[in-house]
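Look over this record as teaching material.
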Amino acid sequence: MSDGGEQRPEGRLLEEAMARKGVKAPWVAERAGLSDNWVRFIVSGSQPVGRGIRAPVEAPADTLARLARVLDITPQQLVAAQRPDAAAELTVLLSHQPTSLRDKLEAIVNDPNCTNGARREAAAYLSVLDAAEQLVDGVEDTRRAS
């Protein structure tokens, strides 16, 4: 344990991406399904473990990949930040990225890493989407019948 922690390259990358997007840790945390504090610890490179004592923090590859996806960080940027493991995880995440709005909403509803609030909100939007599709189908049926 140490009395401080130096910001890691991936922390600087996250901090720069957050500044570029004009967002703070709570916004990123909500979208990545993490706590605000955990995001802050990852960005700073350390976490408090006792009175005046901080321990170094290195984000797990999958966690860093989720943060990178939220902040539009590329796998190449993660490699440049000395995290090829997270770059590989991000590549997998991006390759499984849903394409339709319905797919994206269903992915949120079914993602245990998303907050309950985000999952409930996505489920509500899915209900609205279902109702809209029923309306469109009804209008199209009426047009075909006339």
The mean pLDDT is 90. The beta strands are 46-50, 53-56. Residues 105 and 122 are 5 Å apart (CA to CA).
